[in-house]
Amino acid sequence: MYRALPLALLTATLVGCASDAPQLETERSYQVEWIGESPLIDRSHLTVTFAADGRAHGHAGCNHWFAGYTLKDDAVRFETPGSTRKMCAPSLMEQEQRFLAALEEVQRWDFNDIGQLQLWPATGKPIRLWPE
């Protein structure tokens, strides 16, 4: 009996630590700050919201976007995004296309040391986001 007590305490501690790990929240919006190597154009607004039904959506800078996604542990994948078709300044349209293309390359997620959500492609730098 007494030998089992330390093992039970260790197990409870490890389970407690695992639940304290940051979690990717559904129904929460995140604001994009960087796409790979590039910061966003000043005053542009890009967002990602992970809906509980497996659909993601947000604002891509000019248009609204939407895509299915799958999430398992630290793996996340987006289907090919769709969007509305409004035209904006060429620089915003280029940034929007880079963002939507980057979403298709995402394979995993994590949080960095300062609390930013990072969506990582197979190679290269992540899309970095802040919770709104």
UniProtKB/TrEMBL annotation:
Transmembrane segments: none annotated. Keywords: Signal, Stress response. PROSITE patterns: PROKAR_LIPOPROTEIN. Residues 26-126 form the DUF306 domain. InterPro entries: DUF306_Meta_HslJ, HslJ-like_sf, Hsp_HslJ-like. Residues 1-18 form the signal peptide. Gene3D superfamilies: 2.40.128.270. The keyword Signal applies. This is Heat shock protein HslJ. It comes from Ectopseudomonas toyotomiensis.
